[in-house]
Every structure is written in C-alpha cells, then in structure tokens.
C-alpha cells in the first residue's frame, strides 16, 4: 500500500511551473515598461480606483490577469466584493458575498 | 525578397548561437544565400561554433566605423558556398554599435543575401536591442524551464514595442523554437510540455529541438549540427524548422534518434 500511495503522492512539477509562470507573467505584462502595456496598467489602476470609491475591497481578493493573444489582449480583473449593501468605506461589511466577479475586458 | 531574422531569447545559454548556425546552414544547404551576423560584441562565439575563429580579420564594428568594407569582413563558409559570416568584435564594447551604423550594414546585407540572420546577445541591453531593431521576423529560442519562459515573454514584449517594425505599426512575425526538449521528462510531468509553453507565450511554434549530445559534438568540431551530424535528431529538427521558416507547411514532430524501424514508425506527434 505504501508503494502505491507513494506513486500517487508524488506530484509532477510541470503543472506547478506552468501555474507559477502564468501568475507571474500576468503581473509582469501589466507592469512592463513598454507603451502598449502602460495602457493596461493605467486601466487597471483607474478601474480599481472606481471600485474602491464605492466598495471596500480587500487587496488579496483582487485577481488581475492579462492574456496576450495573437489578435487581441484581454485584461481581466476579478474583484471579490463583499455584500453590495450600502456600506460606507472603512465600515466592516457584515454580509460576505460568495463571489461577485467584475470583469473588465479590453479588446 | 530578402529577410532579416533575429535569433533571440533574453536568457543566456538556451541555444541562440547553436540555432543561428544550424538554421543558417540548413537554409544555405537548401539553396538560399545566407549571412550570419554576430551581435555579441565583446563575447563573440558564432565564429567558434562555425569553425571560422582563425579566419576573422575584420568584424562588424570595423565595418560600422569604416575601417573595412563589407566584402573584407565577410567570411565565406568552406563547406556551404552560399553561407557567410560577419563576426562580432571581441575587443570593442557595445557602445560602438551605433543605430545608423547597424542600419547601413543591414541595408547592404539585404541587397546581397536572401537571409540575414542576426545572433542576439543575451540580455535586454543595447546589443540585444540592436540585433532585433531591423528584423522582419524573430525566432525566440526557449528552454522548457521557468526562467527561460519568463525571459522569452519579456523579449516578445520588446519585439512588439521597441523594433523598427513595431514603431511603424507593423506586425513582427514571431516564431517559438523550443530547444533542449526531453520528451520523456515532459511526459512524466517533470518538464514544461510544448502545450504549456505555447499557451503561456502564445506565439506559433517553429520547431522542437530535442536535447542531444550531437549539438555539443558539433560545436566541439566547429560545425553547425546540421552539417556535422546531419542524420541526428537535432539536425533533422533544425532542418524542418528551416523549411518552415522558408514557408513550407510541415507538421511539427519531435524527431527521435534513429534506432530502428520501431522508432521511425512511432515518431511522436505533437500539436
């Protein structure tokens, strides 16, 4: 049994590498120094400002992803927003929404 | 219609010089006239890999500064007559690569050759910038390994923003060449697979060069692997890549070492 469980326990490392790269490159593409990516960085910043004006957002619950395709790039911003009741900034919301994704896409 | 091709990667040691030599020789063997230009000023190595290290008299910097003309600096390959080499300078520093000087040399080479292949130095500094600036197309050499993929992503970003083509608003043709690939380790899940790298970098695949001792053997004797070991798996992969560059539509496979009929029949298919 130990033999079998050892086989199944051993995780292959390639998927870990792929996931790490995807997360890292999504960030690097946004903050990259060249003109095209500056626009995405700016969009990202301003969209976040607008969201923050209305709801309290936990920085850890924001997922930003930039996909560079052959014909167009996509900026995907996933923000987990706490209960969208009338909460003033700074006040701790009482209801936790499971997940309310807000996608901002740029073609 | 001559083409200027840059072989680049960001990261060092992934096989840019090997690839420049092998692709150039393969294109020349197919009847094209080819010149290989070494942009690694201060750390030239293409001359050594090509076995022409004792024939270097003038170099790229001499031509840029007007100390020699192009005909004096070009070294004709002794094995393939349509293949030439323009070496980099070993003693000057990269600042001698002026934008106007490089533009003039590339323009002159365009008139003489079907293919101008620029071997980029590692990094993202001046030498690499100059090597890619005038390119019509790029081969991005990547190892299936995290640091190489990250650096390739950075270089792709530069190709799309800082080159002459990008500044004119035209699209740079980019091709991914996966080198030092080990199909067994990839299938065990211990090496990034072709699909993983393609998904992350999202540029078309030019070829997959398997990890092979023949590459080292070829550089030991100073010959491109496509000339020194033409029957090896790596050489066949480079030959196919060269034919794809020239516009042929070939299915991408990972050539295996020829051991027998069995290997030939079960040549692995990818993408």
Fold blueprint:
The complex is a heterodimer of chains A (107) and B (271).
Chain A: H1 2-9, H2 14-31, H3 35-54, E1 62-68, E2 73-79
Antiparallel strand pairs in A: 1-2
Chain B: E1 3-8, H1 16-29, E2 34-38, H2 46-49, H3 60-64, H4 70-73, E3 75-76, E4 83-86, H5 99-112, E5 115-119, H6 126-133, E6 137-142, H7 146-159, H8 164-167, E7 173-181, H9 183-187, H10 194-201, E8 205-210, H11 213-221, H12 225-228, H13 233-245, E9 253-254, H14 261-265, E10 268-269
Parallel strand pairs in B: 1-5, 1-6, 2-4, 2-5, 6-7, 7-8
Antiparallel strand pairs in B: 3-4, 9-10
Q: Shape of chain A from CA axes?
A: flat
Helix content of chain A: 40-55%
As laid out across the biggest beta sheet of chain A, the strand order is: 1-2
DSSP, total strands of chain B:
10
GO molecular function (chain B): ATP binding; ATP hydrolysis activity
Pfam family, one (chain B): CbiA
Domain CobQ/CobB/MinD/ParA nucleotide binding (chain B): 5-225
Family (chain B): Belongs to the ParA family. MinD subfamily.
Can you give a write-up of this model?
The complex is a heterodimer of chains A (107) and B (271). Chain A has 107 residues and is of the alpha+beta class. Chain A has three helices and two strands; from the N terminus they run αααββ. In chain A, strands 1-2 form a two-stranded antiparallel sheet. Chain A is flat, with a radius of gyration of 19 Å. Chain B is α/β, with parallel strands linked by helices. Helices cover 41% and strands 17% of the residues of chain B. Chain B is built from 14 helices and ten strands. In chain B, helix 1 packs across helix 13. The longest helix of chain B is centred in the first third of the chain and has 14 residues, at 16-29.
């Amino acid at each position: 049994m130990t033999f079998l469980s050892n086989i199944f326990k051993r995780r292959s490392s390639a998927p870990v590498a792929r996931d790490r790269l995807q997360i890292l490159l999504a960030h690097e593409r946004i903050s990259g120094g060249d003109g095209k990516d500056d626009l995405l960085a700016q969009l990202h910043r301003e969209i976040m400002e607008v969201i923050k004006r209305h709801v309290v957002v936990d920085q850890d619950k924001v997922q930003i992803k930039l996909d560079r395709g052959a014909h167009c790039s996509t900026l995907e911003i996933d923000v987990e927003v706490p209960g969208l009741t009338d909460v003033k900034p700074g006040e701790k919301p009482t209801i936790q929404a499971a997940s309310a994704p807000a996608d901002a896409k740029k073609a | 219609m001559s083409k200027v091709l840059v072989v680049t990667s960001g990261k060092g040691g992934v096989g840019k010089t090997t690839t420049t030599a092998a692709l150039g020789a393969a294109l020349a063997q197919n009847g094209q006239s080819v010149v290989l230009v070494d942009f690694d000023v201060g750390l030239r190595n293409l001359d050594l890999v090509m076995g022409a290290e004792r024939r270097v008299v003038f170099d790229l910097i001499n031509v840029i500064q007007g100390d020699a003309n192009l005909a004096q600096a070009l070294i004709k390959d002794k094995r393939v007559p349509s293949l030439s080499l323009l070496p980099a300078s070993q003693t000057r520093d990269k600042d001698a690569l002026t934008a106007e000087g490089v533009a003039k040399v590339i323009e002159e080479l365009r008139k003489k050759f079907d293919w101008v292949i620029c071997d980029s130095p590692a990094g993202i500094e001046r030498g690499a910038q100059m090597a890619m600036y005038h390119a019509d197309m790029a081969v991005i050499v990547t190892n299936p390994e995290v640091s190489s993929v990250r650096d390739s992503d950075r270089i792709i970003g530069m190709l799309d923003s800082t080159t002459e083509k990008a500044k004119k608003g035209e699209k740079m043709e980019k091709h991914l060449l996966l080198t030092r690939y080990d199909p067994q380790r990839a299938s065990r899940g211990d090496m990034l697979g072709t699909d993983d790298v393609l998904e992350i970098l999202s540029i078309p695949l030019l070829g997959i060069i398997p990890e092979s001792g023949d590459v080292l053997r070829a550089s030991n004797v100073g010959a491109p692997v496509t000339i020194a070991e033409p029957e090896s798996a790596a050489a066949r992969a480079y030959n196919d890549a060269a034919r794809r560059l020239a516009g042929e539509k070939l299915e991408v496979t990972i050539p295996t070492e020829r051991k027998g009929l069995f290997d030939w029949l079960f040549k692995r298919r990818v993408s």
